[in-house]
Amino acid sequence: MTEEQQQSLCELIRQLGAQAQALRDAGLQIDKKARQDFVSQADLFVEKEIKSWLKTHCPQDGFLGEESGLESGEQGTWVLDPIDGTTNYIQGMDYWCISLAYVRQNTLELGIIYAPDRHEFFFARRGKGAFLNDQRLTLREPDPETVIIGMGRSSRAPAENYTHAIARVLNAGMEYRRFGAGALMLAHVATGQVHAYYEEHMNSWDALAGMLLIVEAGGASNNFLADDGLLNGNLVLAGCAGVQARLSALLPA
Predict the structure, then answer these.
(1) How many CA atoms lie less than 13 Å away from 41 in the CB half-sphere?
(2) What would the mean pLDDT of 116-135 be, rounded to a whole number?
(3) Domains of the chain (ranges, CATH numbers)
(4) Which candidate among 161, 174, 184, 251 keeps its CA 20 to 30 Å from the CA of 201?
């Protein structure tokens, strides 16, 4: 991808964020996929527009979208969650985002997360650093007594696993938060507002962009793409290197 194409893609994502806000404000058509799992008119619109742009500008690449599934390509694969945190979005909360990543030869190359209501545009490219609104992000280890962990809950794992993990974190002297949009919480790990993120199972469209942000900001993560994580999803454990190592010993893999 050229620098010009990269800028064009980022501008498209900003525009689609604004259009998603306008669609919500005008009243949305919402369908239910499963219990506490919704898809809105905006999810479908954003995915269609980004997929169309990528087909035009990156025709050799494949595409994996939360709403439309996988289309294989000759080179890499673009991985999209058009709106992560759909429930927050339709309820008028600001904690939602568009999340896009690019994977080539089983390596994360690029990640973009845009939270329109919060005016936060995150960008990372492998070996080039992580940025929030064009400001470089650099992680530092927190005071061990002030550690906060983001903890997502997957409907694909027993609820008891989640409550047991919370108990282990609290008993180890750490705090936790759950805001309902794992991609955006991973991005906030990269800013240092949260010190690590754990979820027993995430889909690739939720996880990849944020995990690259953390690594490029100087943090550490598990190998999400192992065991065909791109298609099957995987555990997510990423954060400041010291906190991530501490959690690796504390929480089940």
Answers:
(1) 12
(2) 98
(3) 3-136 (3.30.540.10), 148-250 (3.40.190.80)
(4) 174
